Amino acid sequence: MPAPPPFFILRAHAAPLSALHFTPGNTHLLAGDQDGVVSVSDLRTRRVVASWEAHKGGVLGVGEWAGGIISQGRDNAIRLYAPLSSGPPEITREMPANALNFCAFSLARVPGEETALMAVPNLTDSELIDIYALPSLDRVGAAVNFLPRAKDGPRSGLVMSLHLAVLPHTAPREAEGKGKGKARTEDQLALVAAYEDGRVELWSCPLAALLERRAEWDGRKMADKLWSRVWEGKAHNEAVMAMAVDRAFERAFTVSADHRVVRIDLAALAGEVAIKAYPTQQIGNSALAVSGDGRILAVGGWDGKIRLFSAATLKPLGALAYHRESVHALAWGSPDPAPPRRAGTLALGADSDSDSEDGGGDEAGDPTNWLASGAKDRRIALWNIDIAR
Questions:
Q1: What is the pLDDT of residue 218?
Q2: Is residue 389 domain-resident?
Q3: The model's pTM
Q4: Residue 126: half-sphere exposure toward Cβ, Cα within 13 Å
C-alpha cells in the first residue's frame, strides 16, 4: 500500500525550516527558519496569523510557555513573548544563550506550579549544561554535568542535544487515619544529553532539593553531589545530529551522519542491555520525533524522506515522500488539551500565502496523529499518520 501524501502544505517561510512545535490542543503550529523568522499558523483555518524576524540568524528552537512563545536563535539569545494577539508578539523577557553548538533549549514544566525549568548549554563552556527557572530566568544549576577529568583526558566535545523532564516518584506513606492509601511524591529531574563524540548521558537530581536552594548550584564548585550521572553510553562514532525522548521517559533515540538509528531503553539502564542500533539503508539523518503515545518514531533524512519505525522494536513501518531536500525538523501533534483562551489573544484571520496541494478536510483526521515536517525546500508538510497501533 503506497504511503499517503501530506494533507496540507504550508509555504510560510522563504528560508529552510529549522524548528517546529505544535501548541497544546494542536490549534497552532510554531515554526522557525534559518533566516531567524518565526511563524505561527492557525491549524483550524490553515493560515499564518503571525510572522516576524525573531533572531538575527537561524532559529534553533521554538516552544510555548504560559500562553506565549519562546524562541532561541543563532544570535545567542532566548526570547520569551507575550501571548499572541495581532501582529508580532511583544518580547517580555530575554536572556543570553550559547549557540555555538546549535543545541536547542529543552523545557520541563513543574507539576502543579506555574513554573518551568529549562536546560541549555553553558555560556562559556559548550561541553557543560546549565538549568534556568522560568519565568524568573534565574540560573538554578550551573555545569550540572561537570565531571573532573585528567589533564590530558579525552573531551566529550560540544553538547549537541538536550532533553529535560520531571519524573514523578511515588512512595507509600504510613497510614494515618483517613490518609490511608495516599502517597507522597518525590519528583526527580532527569536530563538526557547527547554529545559531539557520539556519547549519550543520563543525569538526575531531586527536584525539591534544586528548587529550594537559595543560591545556584555549580557542579565545578559545590562539594554536595546534587546531580548524579546515572548512565552513559556510546551511541555513534560521530556527532549526534538529533535526539528525541518519548513522553513516558522510557526510550531515547538518536541519529547521526551514519546510517544508524539508535534506541536507548531508559527504563532498563540498571540492566545489561540499554542500547540497540538499527542499520538503515541510507546515510545521513537530521531530525527525529516520537509520537505522543510513544509508539511511532519518525526519522527525517538528508534524502528528503521521512521513515517511520516502531519505537518499541525499530521495525520499519513505511516511508513518507514529499520533500525534495533534507528534512531538518519534525514534530508530532500534541496529546495535551488546549488551555483556556485568554481574552484578546490569538486573534485569527490574518492572510497567508499557504495553499493546499493535496486537499484536506476529512483527510486530516485526528490532530494527535498529525506529523509536521520542515525541510530545506522551505516547505512545511502536514501528514495524517493513521497507523494501527
A1: 93
A2: no
A3: 0.89
A4: 16
Establish if 178 belongs to a structural domain: no
How distant is the alpha carbon of residue 20 from its chain centre? Answer: 9
CB neighbourhood size of 156 (10 A) = 18
What's the domain range around 79? 8-147+154-170+184-384
CA–chain centroid gap for 163, Å, is 7
Count of domains in the chain?
1
Measuring CA to CA, which residue among 18, 25, 4, 7 is closest to residue 292?
Answer: 25
The sheet carrying 91-96 orders its strands as 59-65, 68-73, 77-81, 91-96
185: β partners: 170
Asked whether 257 and 239 are in contact (CB, 8 A), the reply is: yes
**Nearest-angstrom CA–CA distance, 142 and 162:** 15
Number of CB atoms found within 10 A of residue 226's CB: 16
Q: Hey, which residues does 318 pair with through a beta bridge?
A: 308
Is 175 part of a structural domain of the chain?
no
CB burial of 108-127 (b: ≥16 within 10 Å; e: otherwise) equals: bebeeeeebbbbbbbbebbb
DSSP per residue, 321-356:
E--SS-EEEEEEPP-SPPPPPPTT-S--------B-
pLDDT tens-place string over residues 198-249: 999 999 999 999 998 888 899 998 778 899 999 999 889 899 999 999 999 9
Residues 6+ apart with CB under 8 A from 313: none
* Nine cell digits for residue 362: 476529512
Question: By percentage, how much of the chain surpasses pLDDT 70?
Answer: 86
Is 27 among the domain residues? yes
Q: Which amino acid is residue 312, in one-letter code?
A: A
Q: Provide the CATH number for the domain around residue 342.
A: 2.130.10.10
